[in-house]
Each structure stands twice: as structure tokens, then as C-alpha cells.
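Hi R.,

As promised on Friday, here is the backbone we talked about, encoded as C-alpha cells. Could you run it through your design pipeline when you get a chance and send me back a sequence?
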């Protein structure tokens, strides 16, 4: 299946996107950091072949998507974007949502706040917040998450932008040990070379755990994401994830995925970017889950 690119306005913001397939239920794929819509290039054709209209937008602030004039990057804003994109692409109740990293963070509140829009949810690399609230403050996880706290400083944009965004390459190497992700990291750097785009990507972290700009209009959507997911959900995690440690992913995670048919799958020989490291395994798990009856 050929992947095409386009632009669409949703919720007042212009999004760039990649897509495959021109009919069937909408399958919206949301990327994370440091990443881009290109991260779904190995999945989009598979989704299209399975009968979906597969669409992967660049998230707000990631070129070629516009930098929002309001400067808001809190999870509720990104979740609202996903629901607005559902409407812009004329999705219906059979639509499915797939999110990795920040895309996962935004997918939980997107689905929880509008469950009538989404039939199934797939998330990768960041579990439901209610299931890891305590684990993220362990010493080992705090050590992995050092960059989040560094991003709260005024030095972040300068440091990340140095040497052609070499910071991005190092995160990919640390988070997916042994995987040559240079090509994929390069696509991310293409989206962040403009200082405005880089500031936007860092702004996600400042709006979530720091003093970044926030708006109460997104509070209700964001709060919905702390509840158990209301639709069948597949959660995937790489055993060798260097960003979100696999020890945080216990079988108790299923308590945050109570809908019948929900599943947890650990993917061996894969780190944070598991869908690129083990595409055959991950794509098959996703497709089997999305095409299952019920």
C-alpha cells in the first residue's frame, strides 16, 4: 500500500499527516517523543491491507503540523486533538486509536473522554497512569527519566539543539539498546530543527510536570485519562525498554484495562521503539487485536 501525505485542519489547528488506505474504519496512529509520524511507516500499509483508513499525524508543534498559537501542550490538549482529528477524518464508532509514548499518554484521555468515538485502543511503551503512579518514583525510573527534569530548565532548548540535535540520537540509543534507529531519529530531527518546533516538543513536558502553560478548558479531558480505559485495550511493552523500565509492567496493569478483551503483551528483544525493532511481531499483535470480533 502506498503511503501518501496531506494536510487537514482539526480543532482550529493545521496538521500534516501520512496515510494509507482510502476506505474502512479510521485507524489513527499517534507518535511520541523524540519521534514523528514516520514512526508508523511500517504499520500504516499493514493496517490499510487489513481494511482500515490508516492515518498518522504529526502532533501539535511537530513540523509540518503547526505550532499552536495558544502554546498549550498539556495532555488534555493533545487528547482533544486526537478527537478533533477523528471528526475531521469523518471517523465513526468503529474507529481505533494507536498511541506510542506521548501518543499513548494522550490516547488514554482521548478515549476515556469520548468512548463513543473509539472501538479499540492500542498503546505502546507508556502504560495507563493509574497503574504506574508509584513506580515512576523509584530510584531506577527516576534515573531513566532524568531528561524530564532537565527539560524544566532554561538550558533544555540549547542542549537538545546542539550538534544537529545529537541529544535525540542519544535518547534513541539509550531507550532501544542495540537498535540502529538513526534513520527514524533523523525523521524526528527534521520535525524539530526549527527552534519553535523544538520548544514545542519540550513544552509537552513543562506543561505536564512543570510550570508550562495550561488551560482549564482541557482539565476534564485530561482527568478522564486517570480512570480505567472504557474500551478493549492492548498494551505492548518492550522487555528491554530503557525509557520506561519493564519492571513497572506487572500483571496488575490489567486492572487499569478492565474492559473485556483487554490484553498485556511484553515483547522480547525490543526496547522503547518496539514497533520499529520488532515490526513483524508488533504489527501482528496489533492487527490480530484490532480485527478480532467483539
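Update: got your reply. Pasting your designed sequence below so it's all in one thread:
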Amino acid at each position: 500500500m502506498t503511503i501518501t501525505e496531506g494536510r487537514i485542519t482539526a480543532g482550529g489547528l493545521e496538521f500534516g499527516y501520512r496515510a494509507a488506505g482510502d476506505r474502512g474504519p479510521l485507524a489513527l496512529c499517534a507518535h511520541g517523543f523524540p519521534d514523528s509520524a514516520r514512526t508508523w511507516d511500517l504499520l500504516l500499509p499493514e493496517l490499510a491491507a487489513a481494511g482500515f483508513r490508516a492515518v498518522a499525524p504529526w502532533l501539535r508543534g511537530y513540523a509540518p503540523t503547526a505550532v499552536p498559537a495558544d502554546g498549550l501542550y498539556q495532555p488534555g490538549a493533545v487528547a482533544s486533538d486526537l478527537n478533533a482529528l477523528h471528526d475531521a477524518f469523518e471517523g465513526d464508532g468503529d474507529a481505533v486509536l494507536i498511541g506510542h509514548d506521548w501518543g499513548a499518554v494522550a490516547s488514554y484521555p482521548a478515549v476515556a473522554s469520548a468512548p463513543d468515538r473509539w472501538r479499540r485502543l492500542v498503546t505502546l511503551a507508556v502504560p495507563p497512569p493509574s497503574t504506574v503512579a508509584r513506580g515512576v518514583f523509584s530510584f531506577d525510573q527516576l534515573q531513566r527519566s532524568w531528561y524530564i527534569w532537565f527539560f524544566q530548565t532554561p538550558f533544555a532548548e540549547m542542549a537538545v539543539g546542539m550538534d544537529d540535535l545529537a541529544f535525540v540520537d542519544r535518547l534513541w540509543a539509550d531507550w532501544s539498546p542495540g537498535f540502529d534507529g538513526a534513520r527514524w531519529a533523523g525523521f524526528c530531527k527534521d520535525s524539530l530543527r526549527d527552534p519553535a518546533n523544538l520548544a514545542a516538543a519540550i513544552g509537552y513536558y513543562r506543561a505536564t510536570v512543570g510550570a508550562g502553560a495550561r488551560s482549564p478548558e482541557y482539565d476534564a479531558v485530561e482527568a478522564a485519562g486517570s480512570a480505567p480505559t472504557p474500551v478493549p485495550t492492548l498494551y505492548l511493552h518492550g522487555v528491554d525498554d530503557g525509557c520506561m523500565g519493564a519492571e513497572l509492567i506487572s500483571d496488575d496493569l490489567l486492572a487499569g484495562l478492565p474492559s473485556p478483551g483487554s490484553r498485556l503483551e511484553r515483547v522480547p528483544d525490543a526496547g522503547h521503539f518496539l514497533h520499529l525493532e520488532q515490526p513483524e511481531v508488533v504489527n501482528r499483535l496489533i492487527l490480530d487485536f484490532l480485527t478480532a470480533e467483539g
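One thing I noticed while checking it: Residues 143 and 218 are 30 Å apart (CA to CA).

Thanks again,
M.
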